[in-house]
Backbone:
């Protein structure tokens, strides 16, 4: 089989991202016929149909989605070869560093890490995307080649994803958030949100007889905290989410053995060896943690 050329990989990624040959051609500065020819060439080489063509444009098949993910990873490594070679000569880390993170870790941990990182390596350009920890979450961004490193909540499913390297950074306990001045906060209605990591706390949750069914559910943890601060109910939240909580909100421990979750980073073995990702991991490990978090 003839190998795919880097330009063919770029075309596949562009078509998958744009959802059509014409839009991809505009983005690449190519003609539509050249893009179509490149895709057909890739399909012949791979022996698989990569896109379904129709009036709606071009949608990736299951094979096409997998190939596009691999293509993004390969193109990223080719870019890393160039930047790492120049960095070795200049003894500096440079280029773009793509990071995916869920909201609370992006708000309360990542700024200090990136401040130290860019102070040490001013030629490095971090790009941060906030990703909801639902479904494949930040690990899926790394697996699909859209991020070099993802800051993720880790469970057994995450640590067993083929082709990914998952490493724990710290353990985070949960606490009870409730309005200030309430004598019996556990008797309040429960407010919950979509990303509340039930898989990590389910065993603890099932042992509690005081937790009612949620009466309000939100998509964002900051919305939950605002509702709690206004006296609408209580919430069981990770400590990192509770940092910078609004006025009117109180935090109470959940006992000597509260539920916990593991937070760490996810990357690929290949990207873990690049200069930019190595530098980020060093800062993640050495930057002091906010109060209430415990290193692994």
Residues:
């Amino acid at each position: 089989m003839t190998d795919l050329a880097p330009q063919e990989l770029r075309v596949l990624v562009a078509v998958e991202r744009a959802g059509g040959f014409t839009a991809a051609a505009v983005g690449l500065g190519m003609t539509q016929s050249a893009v179509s020819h490149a895709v057909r060439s890739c399909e012949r080489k791979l022996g698989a149909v990569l896109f379904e063509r129709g009036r709606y444009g071009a949608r990736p098949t299951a094979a096409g989605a997998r190939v596009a993910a691999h293509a993004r990873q390969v193109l990223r490594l080719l870019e890393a070869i160039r930047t790492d070679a120049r960095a070795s000569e200049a003894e500096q880390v440079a280029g773009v560093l793509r990071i995916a993170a869920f909201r609370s870790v992006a708000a309360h941990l990542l700024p200090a890490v990136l401040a130290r990182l860019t102070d040490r390596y001013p030629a490095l350009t971090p790009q941060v995307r906030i990703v909801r920890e639902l479904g494949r979450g930040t690990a899926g961004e790394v697996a699909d080649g859209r991020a070099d490193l993802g800051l993720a909540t880790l469970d057994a499913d995450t640590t067993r994803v083929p082709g990914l390297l998952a490493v724990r950074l710290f353990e985070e306990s949960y606490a009870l958030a409730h309005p200030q001045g309430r004598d019996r906060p556990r008797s309040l209605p429960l407010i919950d949100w979509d990303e509340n990591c039930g898989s990590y706390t389910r065993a603890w949750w099932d042992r509690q007889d005081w937790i009612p069914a949620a009466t309000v559910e939100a998509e964002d943890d900051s919305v939950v905290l605002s509702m709690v601060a206004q006296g609408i109910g209580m919430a069981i939240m990770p400590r990192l989410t509770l940092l910078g909580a609004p006025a009117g909100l109180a935090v109470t421990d959940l006992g000597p053995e509260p539920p916990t979750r593991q937070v760490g980073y996810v990357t690929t073995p290949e990207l873990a060896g690049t200069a930019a990702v190595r530098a980020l991991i060093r800062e993640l490990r050495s930057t002091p943690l906010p109060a209430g978090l415990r290193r692994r």
Q: What stands out?
A: The first strand starts at residue 51 and ends at 54. The mean pLDDT is 91. The first helix runs from residue 6 to 18. The chain has three domains: 1-90, 91-171+262-295, 173-254.
